[in-house]
Amino acid sequence: MSELQIGLIILGAAVVALVFGFNMFQEWRFRKRTRQAFARSHDDVLLNVPKNNVRDGARHDRMEPVLLDGAPTPDVFDDEPFEPEIPEDTRLNIPPPVERPVPQPAPMPAAPTPAPAQAHTLPRDEEEPAPLESADHQALVIALLDPSLDFIAEVVFHEPHELAAMPRFNVGKRTHILGRTEKGLWKPAEALPGTRYKQINIGMQMVDRSGSVSEQELAVFCQQVSHFAEEHDAAVSFPQRQQKLVAARELDRFCADVDVLIGINVVPRIPVEGTRLRSFAEAAGLQLEPDGAFHYLADSGNTLYSLMAADQMPFTFHTLLDKSFPALTLLFDVPRVAGGVEVFDRAVQFAKQLAMEFDAQLVDDNRRVLTDVGLARIRDQLVHIYGSMDDRGIAPGSVAALRLFA
Asked: In the chain, where are the structural domains located?
């Protein structure tokens, strides 16, 4: 065997080892990300608890649909207790915040060719405003910072000011910056050559799934904004801190009462082959996302419900090809779903189709069967939760809900 052949064999082995190692790394990364996104501790009831405690600065597992019908039903299929894996880390590791969609200015339409007999030019003072200058667009931009959700600092420059770089703030909450140009138009602030700002508003979100902003966090944010204003010889003003802190804590208490993640476990008699599962999920309109779960998406791109392995092993093209899954979990993130109860009905219907296709039963984490009566009770509780959100002015699945429950 020549040295060239030996070298090619070694090179081929190294490539195979590298591909295998990369796949293992991808599985580990997906597993870690999935644990962070969906891990929450729970009691033995779904909604009959004073609080869902998925906030308040501590990580908890999802609230499972567990029935309250008195005597527990027998375990299904075998004597082994069904115990989905729960991460050891109980601190809240929030995934990257869900960013509020930023409306982009529509491109200027090409001027239509006027008909010879009907050509008409508006006087300059009657011309329609450009999309960036329209009142509707300006209202959408200004709404990117919400006084009910954000602590907004106003920085006013003495002269129109071009920023070489946008300020960065070392705080634990999401921040967003809007700028008012020298023409008086509001836009998401960017450090662009030739763009000069008369004012920038810097907002820090006060509440998310990690809890409400603390007094210390707010003080640090104000110090950093003040330092930025001093560097640029600008005036800065803040809202009343204590009022905002009280409002944030009250909003967080409300969010804790409605922050529920429902998980319905699908336990087949024999493990489900990954290839069959993928075909069935994709035929039902779900698609595999980078977090290692199948997601059913709305037209907006937001998740309505998702399907993952009960042991939290991420679905990848590799695992779906080679592995079988002893149990599945359908997840429904209550406050983040627009369409609410109707979407829950669709999710339950999909779970029943899964059970029929793979000869499975729908059970809770204690292995008790989920009956139609129990699912109907959960549905009634969801009606109450969504009513509370509507009364509060936070529509399920709205931009405000996506920000608060991220």
From this structure: 21-93+255-406, 148-238
